[in-house]
Amino acid sequence: MTAINPVTDLSKDGDIAVVTLNSPPVNALSANVRDGLVEGFRQAKADPSVKAIVLICDGRTFIAGADISEFGGQMKGASLFDVQKEIEESPKPVVAAIHGTALGGGLEVALCAHYRVAVPSAKCGLPEVNIGLLPGAGGTQRLPRIAGVEKALEMVTSGQHVPAKQCLEMGLVDELAPEGKLKETAIAFARKCVAENKPLKKVRENNAKLEAAKGHPEIFANFRKANARKFRGFKAPEANIQCIEAAVNSPTFEEGLKTERKLFMELMTGDQSAAQRYAFFAERQANKVPDVPDDTPTIPIKKVGVIGAGTMGGGIAMNFANAGIAVTIVEVKQDALDRGLKVVRGNYERSAKGGRFTMDDVEKRMGLLTGSLKLEDLADCDLVIEAVFERMDIKKDVFARLDAIVKPGAILASNTSYLNVDEIASATKRPEFVIGLHFFSPANVMRLLEIVRGEKTSKEVVATSMKLAKTIGKVAVLVGVCPGFVGNRMLAQRTREANALVLEGAMPWDVDRVLYDFGFPMGPFAMGDLAGLDIGWVKENSKSSTIREVLCEMDRRGQKTGAGFYDYDENRNAKPSPVTEKIIADFRAKQGINPRTISDDEILERCLYPMVNEGAKILEEKKAIRASDIDTVWLNGYGFPVYRGGPMYWGEKVGLDKVLAGMKAFQAKMGDAFKPSALLEKLVAEGKKFGDVK
Ligand code: 3HC
Ligand code: NAI
Fold this sequence. Notes:
Elements: E1 2-5, E2 8-13, E3 16-21, H1 31-46, E4 52-57, H2 80-88, E5 94-98, E6 101-103, H3 105-110, E7 115-118, E8 123-125, H4 139-147, H5 149-158, E9 162-163, H6 164-170, E10 175-176, H7 182-195, H8 208-211, H9 218-226, H10 228-231, H11 236-249, H12 253-268, H13 271-285, E11 303-307, H14 311-322, E12 326-330, H15 334-353, H16 359-367, E13 369-372, E14 383-386, H17 392-405, E15 411-414, H18 421-425, E16 434-439, E17 448-453, H19 459-471, E18 475-480, H20 487-504, H21 508-518, H22 524-531, H23 547-553, E19 566-568, E20 574-576, H24 578-590, H25 600-620, H26 627-637, H27 647-654, H28 656-670, H29 678-686
Parallel strand pairs: 3-4, 4-5, 5-7, 6-8, 7-10, 11-12, 11-14, 12-13, 14-15, 15-16, 17-18
Antiparallel strand pairs: 1-2, 2-3, 8-9, 16-17, 19-20
Helix pairs in contact: 1-2, 4-5, 4-11, 5-11, 11-12, 13-26, 14-15, 15-16, 20-25, 21-25, 25-28
The protein binds 3-hydroxybutanoyl-coenzyme A and 1,4-dihydronicotinamide adenine dinucleotide.
1,4-dihydronicotinamide adenine dinucleotide is lined by residues 307-313, 330-332, 336, 387-390, 394, 398, 415-417, 439-441.
């Protein structure tokens, strides 16, 4: 065995050379890796006793892509193209041996090998689109040549990781190796190439699969049309499509590559990709809690209890059943329990019908859920999550009872949206085992989990919750106790301003349009209509004191009643409503408000600056560990467009000085709701950024 450099080894198995990468955590193509590959292949090719070469990786995965942390800086060492040339032009057959994930630049390297062998658990993908990019090392030109145009379009625009078996079917992988036997299988494959004198297959030279798409521009037009909603606002999907089009229509492979290079550089130097790369690292940074080290002991979670089978409880339970963890759901009444479980089954069956899993899986998952009307049935749970009505008295009563029932050492969690987790914990004799686990609706779909650390919550309970979030596929962000925590606390600012803007002269659809055009999936009024305007509304107490109350009193309670802020047709398409317009006009008149014209810029600034300011207060009060955690909350829980990086990142792009000046101007006109946070003032005065806050 020869060490080529600290991350690359070259060894021999008879006449087969094996180039092995070992660059944890994910063998990303850093300068060291690129240099090691170039040198490793050069030496293997120069050795006359070597007849074929296998490329394999140590550790958890094959190459997971270019090293994203190098982007935006000065590139050092060999380029990725140098690496690819060494492999593709090799006069000796090269076999890539894939386990874990071959992603982005990693797959682009593997596509330069003459053959690919993978274990069944391996996955291949070109996920660059998720960081606002396109595969910039020939991926858009080689993938359609090997997998066909339609499959390639799907893969580059979705970024999906495709399982090895499907890769085999589409020709991306040549042979599956038994699990745990990748190296010997790849070596045997290489030996077979030599013995049978197999051709040195270069994907770039294989144009057969492009032919079918030639002269059929409708393939691309239809694809764009079918995905228009999904791609709205993003630059990368369209650039990816154009590259695949170039693969089909360019006279040569090299011409196609030129288009790919040009569009790659445009994306790479653009704002969207910078924001999306920031979001990628922000999400991973959120896993790190400075005073809870990685080796903090955790509590094994084998059985979970959920209290309440309403909107949230059922979805929360699904997360655990999906991960193979048994759940007992407790309700107060049989009909509520039956209804809750029926909704869960319905969700699973819909997924099965959509092809996500089989009907057998539905039964397996339902089999992990047990309904009950007795809290006593939660005695042996390792974790209990309460999702009953949002009332402190009820929550305290439930926690006091749970404390007496559930075994010592088990975690008691609340899914509360706003309430004080410390006060809830005070109802128990084990506040160190109490934590907030704030799921978002629909809880089985939304990726965000705000983990609310109480004053007394132990480090073990924090570490267990963070780990558990990974197990159930959530993005966890640790936050502190304050009303609404991070997400809802900032949302309250936006909601207040959206309502104020309507009173002052804007229409709900003006506010919604501005936020939709900014990139949110919908504006606050459309959102209200979707969720139901009557959430928290009590008919008997309603006094026409807000526009929303008036709407509810008129039975315009949102989409479910066919009308809310908007009117809806039978397909639930929204139309601005003359009825709402009149309600608003009457309401303003009653309050003596003379409506004025409000610009789109004002709508955006009024809705977003106070959020940035509230985020600064949250940081100042140490209710979030870092600004990027706040962005992670908003990107994963509230539909903030990822290509804008999140509210804090966006605020910095606008300029914190500009946000501060805007807040001050609004404060002078409209009062202390716009009072700038001390931290914002300080950062601007010192020319610093949120990232400088320690
Ligand atoms: N570059 C740099 N660091 C990377 C990286 C990459 N491509 N991929 C992962 N990492 C780092 C993460 O930041 C994390 O670091 P940390 O431990 O310090 O926080 C560590 O590797 C482990 O990552 P995860 O926590 O995400 O580990 P998982 O096991 O959950 O997931 C993964 C592994 C599926 C490989 C996931 O990390 C992933 O999706 N990575 C990104 C893959 C990607 O986007 N590749 C394309 C890159 S762009 C490219 O190749 C351009 C080319 O076309 C020219
Ligand atoms: P819901 O009203 O849909 O469901 C609550 C369920 O709890 C009902 O089925 C009720 O029968 C049951 N319940 C009440 N008291 C009980 C008790 N003592 N024992 C057992 N079951 C009991 O309410 P939803 O929307 O599911 O909210 C639950 C919690 O989740 C609240 O704290 C809420 O603030 C929070 N939350 C709600 C979100 C949402 O979008 N709906 C989002 C995030 C958090």
